[in-house]
């Protein structure tokens, strides 16, 4: 098993331990967005605030709270799903600029994360 696979398995196990009632768990790529969308309506109808702890997901219901843990650093934030996406490659979540900054990957643009519904 590769180091990346071991890290992914450990992250998923930690997320499930962190949230025993988790109904949804997923690991994969994450990116962030904000500039150009700030102040516009998200798919939920809310006004998008790039500094809020929000995210876009392809299928989770709007209003769902999700713990997002960066697989590289172990940092975690809770975001609320209020938009749809990402629609690029195999990414599983698109975080607000504020959430990306809190996780520490804003300058890199993308990272690997695990999600667990709260």
Automatic annotation (TrEMBL):
Keyword terms: Cell wall biogenesis/degradation, Lyase, Signal
Top-tier EC class: lyase
Family matches, as Pfam families: DPBB_1
Coiled-coil positions: none
RlpA-like protein double-psi beta-barrel domain mapped to chain residues: 26-114
Family, similarity comment: Belongs to the RlpA family.
HAMAP family according to UniProt: RlpA
Main function: Lytic transglycosylase with a strong preference for naked glycan strands that lack stem peptides.
NCBIfam families on file: rlpA (TIGR00413)
Official protein name in the record: Endolytic peptidoglycan transglycosylase RlpA
